[in-house]
Structure formats: structure tokens, C-alpha cells
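stage 2 :: seqdesign
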């Protein structure tokens, strides 16, 4: 659930975004519904599908290069999420799902670099 409360996608493919969301919440909610629409699968009742949509949403909104740039200086998840214009939940999801081989290679190199700087 989570983002479903912020947006809905009807059977005609129309996305409605709730009022009162901040910029990052609107961005994440809209992308979430667009991914649902592309996948064309029923949602909100299938936790596995919902998790897949959340991972794809996070991947699309947070490029690994931007993630690495922010990780170099941000002092908190809140600060990093603000800079990336995503919700903290989306950032946490992205950090837990760096699965593309190129992204993994870049992230691993960054982690190794940070470890070497200690
Ligand atoms: Zn959903």
C-alpha cells in the first residue's frame, strides 16, 4: 500500500493524485501509478506485484549516479531524499534493490572507495 493512498489509477488509465502532497510525494505517487499502468496487472491485492512496482518506481526516479553523488555528502536519509526529490520510503526501496549489473558495479565501487578513505 503506501503510495496507493496518494494516487489512484482507474480502468480508463486515468491517474488521480491526492491533494496536499509535497513535490516528492507527487512525483513518487505518479510514477508508481504509471508503472502499474505499464505492467497492466491488477494491483493493491498482490504484495509481490506491489513490491515489484515499488522497486521499478524507485529505480526510475533515482539514477544510481545521482544516488552515489548524494551518498557522498548527505548526513541523513531525510536530506538525501530531499535532494533526490523522492520520499524516504522510495529512497530506502532503491537502496535495497540495486539489482541492475551496471548499477551494482557502480554502487560497489562507491562503497569500496568510501571504505578505502577511512
Ligand atoms: Zn501500487
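stage 2 :: out
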Amino acid at each position: 500500500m503506501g503510495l496507493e493512498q496518494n494516487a489512484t489509477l482507474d480502468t480508463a488509465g486515468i491517474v488521480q493524485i491526492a491533494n496536499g502532497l509535497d513535490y516528492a510525494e507527487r512525483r513518487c505517487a505518479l510514477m508508481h501509478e504509471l508503472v502499474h499502468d505499464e505492467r497492466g496487472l491488477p494491483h493493491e491485492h498482490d504484495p509481490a506485484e506491489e513490491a515489484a512496482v515499488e522497486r521499478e518506481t524507485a529505480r526510475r526516479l533515482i539514477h544510481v549516479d545521482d544516488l552515489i553523488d548524494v551518498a557522498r555528502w548527505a548526513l541523513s536519509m531525510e536530506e538525501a531524499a530531499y535532494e533526490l526529490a523522492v520520499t524516504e520510503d522510495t529512497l530506502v526501496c532503491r537502496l535495497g534493490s540495486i539489482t541492475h549489473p551496471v548499477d551494482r558495479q557502480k554502487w560497489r565501487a562507491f562503497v569500496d572507495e568510501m571504505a578505502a578513505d577511512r
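stage 3 :: structure notes
- The longest strand covers residues 7-9.
- The chain has a mean pLDDT of 91.
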